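Open question from group meeting: does this chain pack into something compact, or does most of it stay loose? Before anyone orders reagents, we agreed to write out a predicted structure and look at it together. Recording both the input and the output here so the notebook holds the full record.
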Amino acid sequence: MKMVTICVLLAGMFLVGQAQQNTRETDKVRVLALETAWNEAEKNKDGRAIDALLAPSFAYTDSDGSFMNKSQFLASVTALSYHPGQITNEGMRADPYDHVVVVTGSYREQGAESGKSYSRRGRFTDTWVQENGGWLCAASQETLIGH
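Structure tokens returned:
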């Protein structure tokens, strides 16, 4: 009887582990899709869409070391002087934890700012948190790297 109980407990633990693994894979896919949606929203200067992706306490560290809160970040990406033509993420990796997914990767961006063309390449780290069944980016940091 003890052996049956142990087998049932082990099978139950395995099934819980499998369910948790499937949930984490689903979380990764969802958050990576949100990363792509963020790029599209920023490229199209869609402040509402970006606002919906960011946590109220969103913290952003720009490549020059400056810090922005959510409202400052939204103002920067919807500024009349900012015209991104292309924003592409590459080599993204999503690491899921309980109610958190950390995404790392690199990006390429081209466009014009204040009438001057630019081309940037950098690395980023975004921290997404699960709230009320949805995912919001709570923190983002980027660092420029050579072309």
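Observations to bring back to the group:
The helical segments are 2-43, 47-53, 70-77.
The radius of gyration is 19 Å.
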